[in-house]
Amino acid sequence: MNKKTALITDSGCDLPLEYREKYNIRVLPLRIIFSDAEFLGNGDIPNDILFERMTREIPKTSLPDRRDLYSLFDELEKQGYTDALYVGISSGISGTFNAARLFAEEGYNSVALSVVDSKTMSVPEGYCVLEAARELEKTGSIERAIRRVKELRAKMTSYIALPTVEYLRKGGRIGAVEGAVGSLLRLNPVITIDDDGLFQTVNKTIGFKRAIEAIAKDFLKKFDGASVKIAVTHGLCPELAQSFLERMSRIANVEESFIEEVSPLLGVHSGPGLLGMVVIT
Predict the structure, then answer these.
(1) b vs e for 17-50, b when ≥16 Cβ sit within 10 Å of the residue's Cβ?
(2) N or C: which end of the chain has fewer CB within 10 A?
(3) How far apart are CA 113 and CA 97, in angstroms?
(4) Helix, strand, coil shares of the chain as percentages rounded to 5?
(5) Cβ atoms of 278 and 160 closer than 8 Å
(6) Of 123, 153, 183, which marks where a domain is finished?
(7) Tens of pLDDT along 225-239?
């Protein structure tokens, strides 16, 4: 029997709609939970409304509902899929990957699920998913797609600049002490996602503009004249994202790039104004 493989990711992935539609990528929704309402984390609530609500209440986020997994795999089975590959948000940031891994081990129906931990999130995860899709289209091999994700991940450098660490602190994504000190001193850290898929502060600046300049300086040092792929994400500041990408394109030879607004699921933890970038060599 010929294999028919579906590609799945989650709300932690920032990838433009054109790619998701081209490769028929399914997005497993995580959930955003306010005291009076619950939303899916991949667009059920737009960021402008989300951020406005967050001025009054910081919501919680949760793993995908098991019913979403059942529904997705029922649909895949009906559509004749034999296999599925899930490229997931870092297991060091969310429990979603482990939930998917356990689901795969259970063998819910006839669709065999393989999983790979991207050990990242946002546009870095988006590029992992995109390259997995391209490999599946080219070879049809899940094993090669997984290998491609791991190879790509090893070539990534990511940067995140935030106007405030308050949302990360309240969401428990950085240490309470570091978050409190950062808020008190008005620090604007430059954060990366390390090889273990965990947040790591690489630079501490005073002022958001200085954080962006720190990213530009590091980019110049590492990638001046190099051939790279770049993806940029932002929290409702598209002009900043576009101008920053254009600036980086004058430093390096950018072979491919895209800009994508941060998903609401990730926006809960970043707040508005985020600027993030992944560079792939």
Answers:
(1) eebbeebebbbbbbbbebeeeebbbbbbbebeeb
(2) N
(3) 12
(4) 40, 25, 30
(5) no
(6) 153
(7) 999 999 999 999 999
Specify burial of residue 106 (Cβ count, 10 A radius: 0-12, 13-18, 19+).
exposed
Largest CA distance in the chain: 62
Model confidence, pTM = 0.94
For residues 68-105, one letter each, b for 16 or more C-beta atoms within 10 angstroms of the residue's C-beta and e for the rest, the string is ebeebbeebeeeebebbbbbbbbbbbbebbebbbebbe
Q: What CATH number does the domain containing 104 carry? A: 3.40.50.10440
Residues 24 and 133 in one domain: yes
Entry field: residues in the chain: 281
Report the distance separating Cα 124 and Cα 69, nearest Å: 24
Strand-pair category, 275-280 with 156-161: antiparallel
Residue type for position 73:
F
